[in-house]
């Protein structure tokens, strides 16, 4: 079974009495849990819970009243019984930091440049203001950071620009710290995670990466291909399922809410630890599509009263200030529990996390720094602040 590591916190699940409705399908044997080499741990290690026995659903699922979804066929498990292949260990956190730093270098250079041959004067603060705004930090967070920085400079009696630079890194890290949070898996079986975002943000890729990490730790994952609009989207998730040797619930041209409903029920019946629901991309301004997303959420709750346990928004790190607008809109529609910020290895400027921290502090569970399976990392405010400073 599954014992969460530093990547995924977890609390012991309360074992429910077995109901003799249907015998649960035994989960596929898994390779010994491998803790990804993330060091140092971002959060204090959580004591692994006592492995709960796989329990069938407590009650037969009731179909949603408002939408009786047609049953989605459950795709045959793809090599579900094969042991999970443990690949070469992911790169050390340091090399991952290198990727993040390289990605944010443009921003860092802008902020760093302000300190070159600088005195502590109004001109320095003006240059920092311009650099922070250019890094997508936004007006409010920029104002907040500069005011905070001035206080720190006074209380530390800093006399050199180089000291101010360190103090700014501190100020950014402190601002971002409330965004640090560990994704908790194991409190519910299955833990249902719904993933939303605009087109191309990196939802499916992030789900693939997350599945890999969860599988590596011994969690049984079921994917729900609720992006039913494009055949290509389903295929893409199938490829990820295949690579990760996990099962997938998918239906050609089906109703996304129906697929999600069936996936949650299948996850309960098969004793999965996690059900990841991939949804189609949409803009917050497309109201009918936002309504559809709300419907998926409602229907998931009908399949399992406590679900979804997590509603994640995936954001392309290159989106700039629009990312904040996305967080606000999706949060209002769905009640977000966490964010995944992708593509921080590219030309992303990263400052928007400061804006999010200031204006809509939804926790950042993970950041994506590339297209490969291992290119997903937990968010650490101090590291991010340092990468942002160059
Ligand atoms: N460089 C980079 N590319 C990424 C990252 N995450 C996703 N992508 C790429 O972004 C594109 C869109 O990703 P996809 O997962 O299909 O987005 P979706 O529409 O939200 O499901 C694909 O080409 C991915 O390979 C990342 O962290 N870094
Ligand atoms: Mg997708």
Which helices and strands occur, and which strands form pairs?
Layout: E1 8-9, H1 93-103, H2 105-113, H3 122-134, H4 139-155, H5 161-176, E2 183-184, E3 191-196, H6 203-216, E4 221-226, H7 231-244, E5 247-249, H8 256-269, E6 274-279, H9 287-303, E7 310-316, H10 322-334, E8 338-342, H11 352-359, E9 364-368, E10 376-378, H12 381-389
Parallel strand pairs: 1-2, 3-6, 3-7, 4-5, 4-6, 7-8, 8-9
Antiparallel strand pairs: 9-10
Helix pairs in contact: 1-12, 3-4, 4-5, 4-11, 5-12, 6-7, 8-9
Main location: membrane
EC number: 3.6.5.4
Organism: Variovorax defluvii
Q: Please report the total strand number as a whole number.
A: 10
Which small compounds were modeled alongside the protein?
guanosine-5'-diphosphate, magnesium ion
Q: What percent strand? A: 5-15%
- For the terminal residues, how far apart are their CA atoms? 41 Å
Mean pLDDT, nearest integer? 80
Domain SRP54-type proteins GTP-binding: 363-376
Region (Disordered): 51-76
Binding site for GTP: 197-204, 278-282, 342-345
InterPro entries: AAA+_ATPase, P-loop_NTPase, Signal_recog_particl_SRP54_hlx, SR_rcpt_FtsY, SRP/SRP_N, SRP54_GTPase_dom, SRP54_N_sf
């Amino acid at each position: 079974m599954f014992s969460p590591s530093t990547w995924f916190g977890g609390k012991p699940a309360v074992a429910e009495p077995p109901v003799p409705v249907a015998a649960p399908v035994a989960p596929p044997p898994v390779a010994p849990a491998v803790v990804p080499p993330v060091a140092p741990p971002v959060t204090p290690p959580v004591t692994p819970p006592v492995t709960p026995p796989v329990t069938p659903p407590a009650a037969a699922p009731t179909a949603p009243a408002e939408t009786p979804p047609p049953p989605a066929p459950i795709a045959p498990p793809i090599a579900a019984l094969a042991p999970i292949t443990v690949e070469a260990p992911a790169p050390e956190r340091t090399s991952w930091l290198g990727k993040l730093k390289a990605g944010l270098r443009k921003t860092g250079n802008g902020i760093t440049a302000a300190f070159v041959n600088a005195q502590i004067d109004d001109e320095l603060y003006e240059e920092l203001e311009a650099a922070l705004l250019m890094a997508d930090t936004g007006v409010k967070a920029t104002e907040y950071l500069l005011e905070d920085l001035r206080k720190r400079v006074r209380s530390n009696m800093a006399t050199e620009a180089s000291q101010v630079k360190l103090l700014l890194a501190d100020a950014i890290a402190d601002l971002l710290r409330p965004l640090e949070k560990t994704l908790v898996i194991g409190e519910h079986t299955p833990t249902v995670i719904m993933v939303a975002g605009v087109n191309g943000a990196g939802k499916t890729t992030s789900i693939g990466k997350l599945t890999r990490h969860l599988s590596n730790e011994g969690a049984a994952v079921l994917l729900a291909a609720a992006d039913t609009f494009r055949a290509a989207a389903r295929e893409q998730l199938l490829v990820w399922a295949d690579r990760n040797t996990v099962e997938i619930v998918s239906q050609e041209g089906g109703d996304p809410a129906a697929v999600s409903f069936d996936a949650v029920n299948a996850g309960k019946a098969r004793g999965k630890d996690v059900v990841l629901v991939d949804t189609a991309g949409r803009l917050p301004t497309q109201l009918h599509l936002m309504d559809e997303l709300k419907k998926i959420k409602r229907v998931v709750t009908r399949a399992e009263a406590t679900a979804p346990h997590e509603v994640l928004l995936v954001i392309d790190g290159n989106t700039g200030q629009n990312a904040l607008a996305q967080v606000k809109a999706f949060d209002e529609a769905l009640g977000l529990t966490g964010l995944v910020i992708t593509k921080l290895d590219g030309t992303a400027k990263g400052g928007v996390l400061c804006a999010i921290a200031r204006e809509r502090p939804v926790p950042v569970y993970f950041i994506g720094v590339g297209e490969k399976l291992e290119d997903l990392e937990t968010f650490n405010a101090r590291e991010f602040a340092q990468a942002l400073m160059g």
